[in-house]
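Design a sequence for this backbone.
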């Protein structure tokens, strides 16, 4: 059988708090391939963001391994790791993290700028992505001239510009009204599948979770499939 694009094996994470070890993740394993999506539900403090940071190469696990297309990001040196993340992983946060002085188009091109000189093909791809998220009439608007939902759609386009293997979204609709949240969730799922990238999203929104193919919960530091008891 071919190896999945993302393989996380037996991930654990402990934090030290007031001299005590807090076991946040206690053996999380996941396998996902391009075009698949997964939503991880769980209450605040369950460890969802911690897991996303580990999958995204931002914070190493205490034990266990992450492999993205056969590369363990935590075996890479600092600069190499930053480059690997930029080229292979797109991030979307609750807050859009756009640069206020740049246009929507320039914001989408930031990951390209971090890697190389911007070529015409990259500008064309950024324009196509902005059109795909419904912003062809807003490319030259700055974030302050866009609605919250439009800003998150720019963030979706920016996350996809490098044709990443993996897109990670942490409460991507947490700051939006119901209608905008529904639209952004749909765009995020549709575009990731079409690219195709793996999409992993963490949220406590049931409405957002309903838009994903596969849902799991994080409970007591472990993944629980939706149709199983969390006890
Ligand atoms: P969620 O995203 O599900 O709300 P988090 O992953 O943010 O949960 O946090 C899980 C737990 O880990 C929380 O109890 C949090 O306080 C703790 N935690 C997260 N990061 C750190 C850290 N750097 N140091 C100590 N504790 C942390």
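Sequence:
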């Amino acid at each position: 059988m071919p190896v999945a694009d993302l393989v996380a094996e037996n991930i654990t994470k402990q934090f030290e708090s007031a001299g005590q070890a807090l076991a946040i993740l206690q053996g999380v394993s996941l396998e996902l391939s391009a075009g698949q999506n997964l939503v991880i539900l769980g209450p605040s403090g369950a460890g969802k963001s911690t897991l996303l940071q580990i999958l995204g190469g931002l914070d190493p696990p205490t034990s266990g391994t992450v492999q993205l297309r056969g590369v363990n990001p935590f075996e890479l040196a600092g600069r190499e790791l930053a480059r690997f993340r930029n080229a292979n992983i797109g991030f979307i946060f609750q807050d859009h993290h756009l640069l206020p002085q740049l246009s929507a188009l320039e914001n989408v091109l930031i990951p390209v700028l971090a890697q190389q000189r911007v070529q015409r093909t990259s500008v064309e791809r950024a324009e196509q992505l902005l059109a795909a998220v419904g912003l062809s009439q807003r490319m030259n608007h700055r974030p302050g001239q866009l609605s919250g939902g439009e800003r998150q759609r720019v963030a979706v386009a920016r996350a996809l510009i490098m044709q990443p293997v993996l897109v990670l979204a942490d409460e991507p609709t947490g700051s939006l009204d119901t209608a905008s949240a529904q639209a952004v969730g749909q765009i995020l799922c549709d575009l990731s599948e079409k690219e195709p990238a793996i999409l992993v999203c963490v949220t406590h929104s049931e409405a957002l979770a309903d838009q994903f193919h596969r849902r799991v919960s994080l409970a007591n530091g472990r993944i629980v499939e939706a149709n199983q008891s969390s006890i």
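The first strand starts at residue 6 and ends at 17.
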